[in-house]
Amino acid sequence: MTLRMTRRAFCGAMAGTAGLAALPVRATGPQTLTARVAKAQIAPPKYAPTAVWTYDGTLPGPLLRVFQGGRVTRRLVNELPVPTSIHWHGIRIDNAMDGVAGLTQEAAPPGGAFDYDFAVPDAGTYWYHAHTNSFEQVARGLSGALIVEETDAPDVDRDEVLVLDDWLLNPEDAQFMEPFRHPMSLSHGGRLGNLLGTNGTFDFAREVRANERLRLRLINASNARIFVLRLAGLDGWTVALDGMPLPAPEPVEAELILAPAQRIDLIVDVTAEDGETAALVRFDDDDQWRPQARFPVAGNASATQRDGPAALPPNPNMAVPGIDSARRLDMVIQGGAMGRMSGAMMNGRSMGFRDMAGQGKFWALSGQVGITDTPFASLDRGETVRMKLTNDTAFAHAMHLHGMHFRQVADDGTLGPMRDTILSYPDEPLEIAFVADNPGKWLFHCHMLGHAASGMTAWIKVS
Ligand code: C2O
Ligand code: CU
Questions:
Q1: ∠ CA(249), CA(253), CA(259), 5° rounding?
Q2: Residue 325 CA neighbour count, 13 Å, CB half
Q3: What confidence tier does 285 reach under pLDDT thresholds 50, 70, 90?
Q4: Which residues in 389-419 are b (16+ Cβ under 10 Å) and which e?
């Protein structure tokens, strides 16, 4: 059975069912995050619960909230049978706390621990996830939301964190399909789930009132899925991308594209009426629009809709000055099925594509498979860098830079919104620019996690 058929079979089997929704609660008690095996009812109730890997037993992990300028202090306690580490995605973090096993720390072994303690300079929507064999550990459930609150928060009636995910389950028993390193998914679009959901359930729902104003924090925690989303019964504005505020709210008029690891903060007003259901809807694999999160309307918050929202207060250090005199880097994304790559450097020697594939590697960044002792670039602290990305593959890739945010440079030299993950489409070159103001060893990789594991990972050094 092909992956695609399996996907359809599972979706068909669960049509017309309903379930309960639950939001993770704020972590209390000792300041630990325990990575451990648990069971979660992700699939409809007629299925068995799924054996998942979690932080503190919940899927997604506990929702962490901290004020801007504060610190996150958590001891990772590893009760899993394998080593693990946590990456705090999008935080402009102290390098030693970045959580990349093999680059910034040794993974905590089974029975071991690692103390994370770092400042959060920026307000916004971030997330945390395993960064040791992430293609498997994140797929098994090791991720959660990290919200950094503005001291001067926008006026909304409620704040909802929506962790969007998909899970590839065996339709027979609702357990994860293995292997996680499937050559077919590694060399194509990545591991796509056959069950989609929000906050750990296939049928997330939250009751709202008419004309209520919500802040929706969308996080794509899936391994490889690019969510295509629309609002139904909601009027909305995008106010931040990847945690970083936009200079002005942008009305949501078209579809929202949310690539793996990206975040969108929306402010939405409920325009559906009492008794109706508003929703965040997604474009599904079978070309149907289906709810990704439902908002049944019960009662009225007010008789009329409010005025448009104000912009979020900006974060510090959002400027990318001096792009005309910036250092220029060129990165070519290569490989994959139906690609043009004949081979690349791997473990210090040149290898043909067929031999690479034999070792489970299908991708390269500028001729190099995975990371080596030598960084892709060594940058001087404080300098501005422009990096051209050429996607010479047949797939889209969600390229993520650790430690610093960047802006896209348009052809006319204007700068786009500040982000940490950008979707690169085949044969559409794009350029990003950033200030290398954070010293350390930083990964740059595709956030389709199977791609990252099979070659599409590089690192840069800032000193
Ligand atoms: Cu969210 Cu290196 O990743
Ligand atoms: Cu990729």
A1: 80
A2: 3
A3: confident
A4: bbbbbebbbbbbbbbbbbbbbeeeeebebbb
CA-closest residue to ligand 1 atom 3: 89
- pLDDT of 290-314, one tens digit each? 999 999 999 999 888 889 999 999 9
Ligand 1 atom showing the smallest separation from residue 90 Cα: 1
CB 198 within 8 A of CB 229: no
Paired tokens of 34: 């325990």
Q: What confidence tens digit (pLDDT) does each residue in 85-124 have?
A: 999 999 999 999 999 999 999 999 999 999 999 999 999 9
Of 14, 120, 23, whose CA–CA distance to 73 is shortest?
120
Question: pLDDT, tens digit, for every residue of 256-270?
Answer: 999 999 999 999 999
On whether the CB atoms of residues 334 and 341 are closer than 8 A, the answer is yes
Nearest CA to ligand 1 atom 1: 89
Cα(456) to centroid of ligand 2, in Å? 7
Strand order from edge to edge, sheet including 377-379: 377-379, 457-462, 440-446, 397-401, 421-424
CB of 214 closer than 8 Å to CB of 270: yes
pTM over 0.85: yes
- Write down the pLDDT at residue 364: 98
**pLDDT above 50 (res 381):** yes
Atom of ligand 1 nearest to the CA of 445: 2
Chain mean pLDDT for the chain: 93
CB 129 within 8 A of CB 91: no
- A 10 A CB-CB count for 42 gives 22
Ligand 1 site residues (CB inside 6 A) read 87, 89, 129, 131, 261, 400, 402, 443, 445, 447
Ligand 2: distance of its center to the CA of 189 in Å?
Answer: 7
CA torsion 445-261-282-362 (nearest 10°) is 20
Of 138, 13, 119, the closest CA to residue 66 belongs to 119
